[in-house]
Every structure is written in C-alpha cells, then in structure tokens.
C-alpha cells in the first residue's frame, strides 16, 4: 500500500521544453554537446588545479569545489532531459521527482554560500594581502566549505519537509523538463497558500542574506582596490570581474524564477535551462578565459604532456 502523501500519484509527467519532434531532436543534439562541455570544462579546472602546484592556494581550492557543485547541479536533471527528448512519454517517479527537488535546493544553497566564501577569500587577498595565507588557513577553508554544504543541506531539508505530508491525488503534469518545487507544489490536493509563503520566505531569506553579504564584500573590495597601484589595481579588477560575473549569472535567474513562483503562469523554461545548464557551462569558461594563472597552468600541463609523449 502506497504512502498517503502520494497515494494516488506514483509518477509525474514532464512536458519538457517542446512538443515538436524536430525541435526535440535538435535539442537532443545541442544539449548533449552542452552537457559534455560542462563535464569536460569543470573537469579541466579540477585537473589543472590538482596538478599545478602554483594553483594550490585558497582561491583555487574554493574554485574546484565550485566546479564540483556545478557539475552535479547540471547532472541532477540534464541527462534525463536529454534521454527524454527521444521518448514520447516523459515520466518520473514520485521519489525521483522528490530527489530532483532536494538536490536542486541542496546544490543551489551550497553554491550561494560558496560564492560568499569566495568573496571573503578575495576580500582577505586584496585588503589584507600580508596576512592572507595566515587568515585563509586550511582549517578556515574547510570550515567555510563545510558551512556551505551545511547551509545547503538545512535549506533543502526544510523545503522538502514541507512536501512530505502533501497529498498528491489528482493532476500529475509538470510543465517543465524537471521537477521544480513551485510547479510541483501547485499539484497538491489541498490549499497550499501558507505553504507557498513558507517556501518563498525560506528561499528568499537565504538568497537575500547571501546577496547582501556579496554586495558588502565586493563594495569594500572595490573601494580598497581604488587605492592600489595601477598594476595591482588592474590584476585585482581582472579577478574581481570574473567573480562578479559568476555571481550575476547565478543570482539573476533565481530572482526571476522565484519572485512570482506561484502565479498562474508556469516557470520560464528558458531561465530554468539557463540556471541549471548554462551557468555551470559558463563558470569554467569565465574562470579560464579571464584568468591568466589558469591559462598559463593549462598551457604548462599541455606542454608537459606533449614533451612526455615525445620522450617515449
């Protein structure tokens, strides 16, 4: 006998991005390439930082963790979406749907806090350069990392706790390519108005706190950079621009997706695609193309690999 909270609904139907067969084939090819780019791009950062001792610094330790989160964030729904492009009936089990929502909020919350940790790292590096390695010690880095995952876990658990006792006994069609909480919660067979407010408050509070911390951090950093020498200022702004671009790409879709999550209109699919797929793809591109140290490390590893092949 199935549990009461989903006694009449054992699976959900995903409408996907389009009903056109031609478009679905095009999407299958396109998103397969994009997903491969996400995995390879983030793997490149992981390998580069791991094998180049010059990059064994606090900033790059946080960066490889961001790459890991981005890879998993892109993987919680994208592979299934790609496979579903070839299926006529796109379904997902109740627990599969629940898992997608859990991991989306877990990884999203963790990434928000990790971006805050990266902002703290840049603040210390630019404003207190002589004490950088002392302040950003391995113990502090592990603490920041564990705090990021802990906040993400608490945030996701609190969101999912609201879902456990909801009865799903009627409609089971989700107008998206994955299970998103604002869409799924509307399918419950009870009045969810208060629950909607709690969900909005939970997500909004975390987003607001992280955004304010980032805003304060980068404002202080920019004010400090203005007093640096021309060369130091140029290098600092180059690093900062990459971080600020990533923060903007991450938070902008969140605002549009969750400001009006329970209106009569469905969540904008384009923004959902951007948030879950293109942001994890753009992050490694931004950090490699705009970072001279990473580009130099990649070139060094490639040269070392070519030389080792020639000696064989």
TrEMBL record:
Q: Where mainly located?
A: membrane
Q: Where are the transmembrane segments?
A: 25-47, 59-78, 98-120, 140-158, 204-225, 237-260, 272-289
Q: Which Pfam families match?
A: 7tm_4 (PF13853)
Q: Which GO terms describe its cellular component?
A: plasma membrane
Q: Look up keyword Transmembrane and say if it applies.
A: yes
Family membership: Belongs to the G-protein coupled receptor 1 family.
The protein's location, in the record's own words, is: Cell membrane
Keywords, comma-separated and alphabetical: Cell membrane, Disulfide bond, G-protein coupled receptor, Membrane, Olfaction, Receptor, Sensory transduction, Transducer, Transmembrane, Transmembrane helix
Q: Which InterPro entries match?
A: GPCR_Rhodpsn, GPCR_Rhodpsn_7TM, Olfact_rcpt, Olfactory_Receptors
Topology versus the membrane, per the UniProt entry?
Multi-pass membrane protein
Gene Ontology terms for molecular function: G protein-coupled receptor activity; olfactory receptor activity
Identify the domain of life. Eukaryota
Q: What's this chain's function?
A: Putative odorant or sperm cell receptor.
**Protein name per UniProt:** Olfactory receptor
Organism name: Camelus ferus
């Amino acid at each position: 006998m199935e549990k009461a909270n989903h006694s009449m609904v054992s699976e959900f139907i995903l409408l996907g991005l389009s009903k056109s067969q031609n478009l679905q084939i095009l999407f299958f090819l396109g998103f397969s390439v994009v997903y491969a780019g996400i995995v390879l791009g983030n793997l490149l950062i992981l390998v580069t930082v791991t094998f180049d001792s010059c990059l064994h610094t606090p900033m790059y330790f946080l960066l490889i963790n961001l790459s890991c989160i981005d890879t998993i964030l892109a993987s919680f729904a994208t592979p299934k979406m790609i496979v579903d492009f070839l299926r006529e009936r796109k379904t997902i089990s109740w627990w599969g749907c629940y898992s997608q929502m859990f991991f989306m909020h877990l990884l999203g919350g963790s990434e928000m806090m990790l971006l805050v940790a990266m902002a703290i790292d840049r603040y210390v590096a630019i404003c207190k350069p002589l004490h950088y390695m002392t302040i950003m010690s391995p113990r502090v880095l592990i603490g920041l990392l564990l705090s990021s995952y802990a906040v993400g876990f608490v945030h996701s658990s609190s969101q999912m706790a609201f879902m456990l006792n909801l009865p799903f006994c009627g409609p089971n069609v989700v107008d998206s390519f994955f299970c998103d909480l604002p869409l799924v919660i509307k399918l419950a067979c009870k009045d969810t108005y208060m629950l909607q407010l709690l969900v909005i408050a939970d997500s909004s509070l975390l987003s607001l706190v992280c955004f304010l911390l980032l805003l304060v951090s980068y404002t202080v950093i920019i004010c400090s950079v203005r007093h640096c020498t021309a060369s130091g200022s140029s290098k600092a702004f180059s690093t900062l621009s990459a971080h600020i671009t990533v923060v903007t790409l991450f938070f902008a879709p969140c605002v549009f997706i969750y400001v009006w999550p329970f209106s009569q209109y469905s969540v904008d699919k384009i923004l959902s695609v951007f948030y879950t797929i293109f942001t994890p793809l753009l992050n490694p591109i931004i950090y490699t193309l705009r970072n001279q140290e990473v580009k130099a490390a990649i070139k060094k590893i490639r040269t070392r690999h070519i030389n080792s092949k020639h000696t064989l």
